[in-house]
Specification:
Shape: elongated
Largest sheet: 3 strands, mixed
Strand order of the largest sheet: 6-5-7
Helix content: 40-55%
Number of helices: 3
Order of helices and strands: EEEEHEEHHE
Structural class: alpha+beta
Number of strands: 7
Amino acid sequence: DVLEVGPDGVRVVDRVPATPTLVDGRASLDVGQALLRERQRLAKDGMLTTVVTLDATGALRAGPEMVTRGFLEGDDDAQVLLDEGKRRVVEVIDAAQARGDVPPEKLEKQVVDTLSRLFSERTGRKPVQLVVVQRV
């Protein structure tokens, strides 16, 4: 709204279209609703990064390593839950290797789905997930 302030008071004299503006560090950006929803979800549910390293046959060589931000922090059972998540990731990878079905994109989705179910059931939260499947 455009306001006019005068000796008789304040009144609305016009309207100006406006969109949300995000101030991010040094930049001021016009952002859409999708980005705002993502930022709200990150603030509410946190983030989980899972990294696994596979060999050429699809066998697990390292990991899974899990790092959280804004999720499970300060939770006394956090390590127990992360250990359960790691166990389930190993099961997903072992099952995929046994089937001979180990494309990284497919594994990433299976890991996200598996961990989403686990954490949703146990915490009621669904952190934003980044899964990295590396091949050596």
